[in-house]
Amino acid sequence: MAVAELVLRCLQARDAAYCPYSRFPVGAAILTSGGAIITGCNVENASFGLTVCAERTAIQRAVAEGHRSFTAIAVTCDIKDRFVGPCGACRQVLLEFGSEWDIYLTKSDGSYKKTSLKELLPLPFSPAHLGRPDMAVKL
Ligand code: THU
């Protein structure tokens, strides 16, 4: 699967963002180990703290559809002049499902920058700290 396809899917997912309060749409697209693409967008709420980011919407949807093994995620927002990373909460939620997947920060023109959880979330708290060395995260 070409990265360009994953990027395109996250750009399309952004169109569905429900963000009447921030007017800041975000899209995410996750590539599973089996080759499926699962997308998400941010979903805001009048009780602002209940807002869910695009990345977490995508993760929750993916898990609910039976996926737990992921190889990449692409994320995009409307900021044109720089690459924007996932918020801290989303970094932690991504880590739950492994530290090895690729993260593509993308812009509306389809350009992207590859990064990783090791870079975005150094010295993490992980399942390994709860005595679960069997789980996906490698530190
Ligand atoms: N947002 C995301 O969807 N992902 C992030 O990683 C950062 C922020 C959303 C949440 C909210 O709906 C809007 O962007 C402004 O914070």
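^ tetrahydrodeoxyuridine complex. The longest helix spans residues 3-14. The mean pLDDT is 94.
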